[in-house]
Design brief:
nine-stranded mixed β-sheet; 295 residues; alpha/beta
Length: 295
């Protein structure tokens, strides 16, 4: 009997050791997930639960909806962030933060996870697509951009609608495959990827397209509203509901998204114009000289 127990323990030890080695050899080993819809959003919770089956999973996300906040960092002004531990699933270390998506990334990378940084950051899954110039306003993309700027590969995922049967599960499965792909493993510092998944049944999605961002997709207009005060220095401007622009470039993300494709856009957090930079370095005479006179 003792011999059988010993053999059983030995077998389990070998199996568990092999499983651990497989997990160590897999990538990513440690994932950080955030979003701009708030930590209680079902899409984030389900995504984290799925990743927890294949990797050490951390969640650091806002305590409320922080959509359209770009990469705003509130801690610059208030100097303190409150992070409360919460439970959203087994084997997930989760914190809800009284800040913005970019705050969450900085807090995770430079505070909570500073001794064990993530291999990959996933921002999302966001409920609305991020196409064209949306990247300028998106908190989902802002979080990925901050992560990539600090040297951690990142994916921002947007667009799908969880109410559609099968949409959330299909999206999560595909995002995990993307996260494990050679493409993501080989991202360099300051590179990140944005994904927009059509808000249609999974079986109607035609495939994946890599595209450039469309131009302006919404026409913003303001109406002047006279101020009732006597002050001549105050003006009120009322924003009309933005009007969608239907004509977009044929090979743009917006057009291909409307054609029912998942859209992948490679992005850079580094906004240097390196061509112009080198040109100006080589041609300093193009700039006016500085002097303290009015000549």
């Amino acid at each position: 009997m003792k011999k059988k127990i010993y053999l059983a323990i030995l077998f389990l030890t070998i199996v568990c050791k092999g499983a651990a080695q497989d997990r160590i050899q897999s990538w990513p080993q440690r994932v950080l997930i955030t979003n701009d819809d708030g930590i209680e959003d079902v899409k984030l919770v389900k995504l984290a639960q799925a990743f927890s089956q294949i990797a050490e999973t951390w969640v650091v996300a806002p305590d409320q909806d922080r959509s359209s906040t770009t990469h705003y960092i509130s801690v610059y002004r208030k100097h303190v962030l409150n992070a409360e531990k919460v439970s959203i699933g087994d084997n997930i270390r989760a914190y809800k933060v009284d800040g913005y998506p970019a705050d969450c990334i900085l807090l995770a990378l430079k505070g909570i996870m500073k001794d064990n940084p993530p291999d990959l950051v996933i921002s999302g899954i966001n409920g609305g697509q991020n196409l064209g110039f949306d990247w300028l306003a998106s908190g989902t993309i802002g979080a990925a951009r901050i992560a990539s700027y600090w040297g951690v590969p990142a994916i921002a995922v947007s667009g799908m609608k969880e109410e559609i049967p099968g949409a959330l599960d299909s999206s999560i499965n595909w995002v995990i495959k993307l996260a494990q792909s050679e493409l993501i493993q080989k991202l360099k510092p300051k590179q990140y990827i944005t994904i927009s998944i059509p808000r249609i049944p999974p079986e109607k999605i035609k495939g994946i397209k890599v595209a450039e961002r469309a131009g302006i997709l919404l026409d913003f207009k303001f109406n002047f509203v006279p101020n009732k005060t006597d002050s001549s220095y105050n003006e009120n401007w009322y924003l009309q509901r933005p009007t969608p622009i239907t004509a977009v470039e044929e090979d743009s993300d917006a057009k291909l998204y409307r054609d029912d494709y998942i859209i992948l856009v490679p992005m850079l957090a580094d906004e240097h114009d390196y061509i112009l930079l080198q040109y100006l370095i080589q041609n300093p005479a193009l700039l006016p000289t500085w002097n303290t006179t009015n000549d």
